[in-house]
Amino acid sequence: MKFKEWVKTLLFYEIALGMKATLSHLLHYKPITLQYPHEKKQLPSNYRGMLALLRYDDGTEKCVGCDLCEAACPSRVIRVVSAEVPGEPTKRYSKEYYMDMTRCLFCGLCVKACPVDALGMTQEYEWAVYDKRQLQLNKEQLLAIGDRNYPVREKRLEFQHPNVAYFNVGFKEIPQKEE
Amino acid sequence: MDTGIRLALTFGQIGAVMVAVLLTVAALTLLERKVLGWMQDRMGPMEVGPYGILQPVADGLKLFFKEDIIPAGANKFMFSMAPVLSLVPALIGFAVIPFGPDWTIDVGGVAFKPFVITDINIGILYILAFASIGAYGIILGGWSSNSKYSLLGGLRAAAQLISYELNVGLSIVGVLLLSSSLSLVTITNAQAGGFWNWYFFGGGGFPQAVAFVVFIISAIAETNRTPFDLPEAESELVAGFFTEYSGMRFAFFFLAEYGNMILVSCVATVLFFGGWHAPLEFLQGPESLHWLTGMMWFTIKVYGFLFLFFWIRATLPRLRYDQLMRFGWKVLLPIALGNIVLTAIVAYLFPGN
Lengths: 179, 353
Description:
Oligomer: heterodimer
Radius of gyration of chain A: 27 Å
Number of strands of chain B: 2
Structural class of chain B: mainly alpha
CATH class of the largest domain in chain A: Alpha Beta
Shape of chain A: elongated
Structural class of chain A: alpha+beta
Strand order of the largest sheet of chain A: 2-3-5
Radius of gyration of chain B: 21 Å
Number of domains of chain B: 1
Order of helices and strands of chain A: HHEHEEHEEH
Number of helices of chain B: 12
Largest interface: A-B, 14 and 14 residues
Number of helices of chain A: 5
Strand order of the largest sheet of chain B: 1-2
Number of strands of chain A: 5
Shape of chain B: globular
Distance between the termini of chain B: 44 Å
Strand content of chain A: 15-25%
Helix content of chain A: 25-40%
CATH architecture of the largest domain in chain A: 2-Layer Sandwich
């Protein structure tokens, strides 16, 4: 045994093994590189990218200014200023809506919290900017992101019946309050 | 008149060799990254030009236009001298390398050897001497930067280069005994006529394969390449002796490293693998084409060694410092000495074989 090991050491057996491994990778060259700006990865459909505000098909905003997203957000990204719709005292809307995306951690809790599905997560992720103030988005910008990512947004299947009120059942996995 | 022609010829030759060496360096920077990439399932540079082949140009331009920073507290004279001191010995060694057949042609009454700049009779000593001077560039560069990482890199380089230069010198003594000459042209000519005459395979009576292994290991250590790149160990010393260098001064160190790699490959080719001689006689072609096939075989062999350098870099991790020293002094040195003794006995008992 001892002699065999000596011969192996003298012939650089281990080094030869390693060099064989690297050479075999060279000969069976199959790169795993994705040439990123030229080719892009196929994202999963539930990818949580840039947040967006959504509209109904007739163009009106979904958001009713309930502030639940602001309450749900763990990193205080969202700020909502709610107001009555002028001339319609029973309806409210978000007069101003701000998101500071520098703090967002893309957990999706706001989307789950929204009772009217007014928030959505898009597949956008290339949001590197030179000035971080460009990441403090207002309502118009968020609506624009929603428009370009969801040109048609249907109601969720379970809400499509006309008798069902627009109330989401968010946080299904969290234990619900007893009746 | 004769002096004028000789000067013009020599300068032309030096220019041609310099251009060839620097072009090879440029090709090597790309080839190394490509080969390393392929071996690691990556692609290497792909952005500049098709398949990244213009990457050396982009690198050169970038280094050329970078700000030249001299750190506060650095010894300004030494700091600016060190890259030159490192680059010049790396390039100057090519003066004695025979790239092709040992022809002497007559140009206007001047005997002129087209494939070797100067055939001095102590060629290999000259290369070793200048390689030692190259170590000064590294040590002084590390010392003059006024940075702890540079100083540590320089000190490591000092110890490593001195110990491994010894092994380089001793490992080639066998070849010198068998060829009984220090001139690289004579050594090459002694290996003509097929690969069995190459000193690696036993030309001259005693195979120098062991000496070659010692030589190539020591050469890797002397050119500061992985697995012996302790003077510039990224994970320990940032960049070692050239931590503080930027721009063209950094490029000089870079050129010196690659120039040394090519030089060491050339020396290995000439001493152990027959220089410009083809492995079999008929592959050399007719006498009139020897200049072409000679340069071709020389280039193939040199690039083979350079590929070996890349291959080893892609495979082996860096040695620890005490392992490096122990390996150099306790393993390689006795082997090299034993090889000298055996070769001397064989050369004495069977002279002129």
